[in-house]
Design brief:
With about 400 residues, this protein is α+β, with helices and mostly antiparallel strands. It is built from six helices and 24 strands. The model has no long low-confidence stretch (mean pLDDT about 90).
């Protein structure tokens, strides 16, 4: 009997050792696998600001309604003409016109029109993904397609003209993730961002986790076709907005939660400075409001809790980020994103938070990409949600 017990005990110990050895082998194997990212250590300017003063929680973003549920998937950015038509692009590579009576009309498909478009990010390079959308002085839509380049599109016929392909890029570096867009009413220059020279839009989570300075702010001259690099080595540059007098541009650096001011005129022309840092969320697009302030859509929040926000926590540790990128599927990071909508309003110089709009439970929307005001209505963009949230005049103020 005693011999049988000793045999069983030895067998159990051998089994545990074998399991431990196998687990160790798996961990070593995973550790030795190459990581898709090459991060640098970074310490964010924390902790995040407290939810008080102009940042105090409210429900101002809940006073709206959803348009076109199931028809518009990820209306990211907006433009409007003098007749009151609003234009936007969606995750399936399509451009749309919304008439003043809320009739929805397809303008064109940026890439190939396949049944799979919009169903999987893997098809985005083929279908296209329009991000920044603006109207130029000739009434043409200028579109920054993340994969297919900078285009001019006739809003009436849908005819597309390629202005600059991603392969052409600028300064010998191809574009990989065209994103934000702004057009000068004074000069006609097109300002746009390339969020990363390494990662395309469908790999945006890797770009955010990697936290490297691989983005650029650029300009395109429609008269000459010339593209200039205004700023490089930026942390995921995203939305851009001109000041009313066009003396400066605001540029969102999404992955580190800050906004830059780039001077176009005056004694500081050609230089940059930090306009606002350590933001309460990760800024996406920036637009002028009806009252001359700047409205910043927050792709997700960055609140004080018992522990630092996830991205703050892992930012200083490249080895940890390399490991996570190898073992955690990208979609799993979505569970870390709160269903919370937030818009930050910056003052006329872009450097002070003067107000915020919240939807704490995500009743109307969440993950706001852009805030566009037109004819008394506020349009709230997103990168992935299957509807278009709007606030009417009474609800948007």
């Amino acid at each position: 009997m005693q011999q049988e017990e000793e045999t069983l005990e030895n067998s159990t110990m051998l089994s545990k050792r074998s399991t431990a050895a196998a687990l160790l082998a798996v961990l070593v194997g995973v550790y030795l696998l190459p990581s898709p990212i090459d991060p640098e250590p970074h310490v964010l300017k924390g902790p995040p600001p407290a939810l008080e003063g102009p940042l105090a929680v409210n429900t101002r973003l809940q006073k709206g309604r959803r348009l076109f549920p199931g028809k518009l998937h990820g209306p990211e950015s907006f433009a409007a003409d003098e007749e009151g038509n609003v234009f936007t692009g969606t995750v399936d590579g399509k451009l749309w016109r919304i008439s003043p009576d809320d009739t929805l009309t397809l303008i064109t498909q940026m890439g190939q029109d396949l049944p799979e478009c919009g169903g999987s990010p893997d098809y985005e390079p083929v279908c296209g993904r329009p991000h920044g959308v603006r109207l130029d002085r000739r009434g043409q839509l200028i579109v920054a397609d993340s994969y297919l380049g900078l285009h001019s599109v006739d809003p009436q016929t849908g005819e597309k003209t390629l202005l600059r392909s991603n392969a052409q890029g600028a300064g010998g570096v191809p574009f990989a993730f065209l994103n934000g867009l702004e057009i000068s009413s004074q000069t006609g220059l097109v300002y746009f961002t390339d969020s990363s020279s390494r990662w395309g839009r469908r790999h945006v989570r890797l770009e955010v986790i990697e936290l490297n300075r691989l983005g650029r702010l650029l300009s395109y001259d429609p008269e000459t076709g010339r593209v200039d690099v205004l700023l490089d080595a930026l942390y995921m540059p995203n939305g851009v907005a001109l000041s009313p007098d066009e003396h400066f541009l605001l540029v969102a650096e999404t992955s580190i939660g800050r906004v830059l001011r780039y001077w176009l005129k005056g004694p500081k022309a050609g230089t940059k400075e930090v306009a606002v840092d350590n933001m309460i969320g990760y800024p996406d697009n920036i637009r002028l409001s009806d009252r001359g302030t700047f409205l910043v859509g927050m792709t997700t929040t960055r609140f004080r809790k018992a522990t630092p926000p996830f991205l703050d926590l892992i930012a200083p540790y490249p080895a940890l980020k390399r490991f996570l990128a190898k073992v955690v599927p990208l979609r799993w990071y979505d569970v870390l994103l709160p269903r919370y909508a937030l818009v930050v309003e910056l003052g006329a110089d872009g450097g002070v938070v003067v107000a915020t709009l919240h939807d704490p439970e995500g009743r109307l929307t969440w993950a706001v990409s852009e805030v566009f005001q037109h004819r008394g209505r506020t349009y709230l963009g997103s990168t992935d949600l299957p509807f278009l949230p709007v606030l009417e005049a009474a609800g948007g103020r």
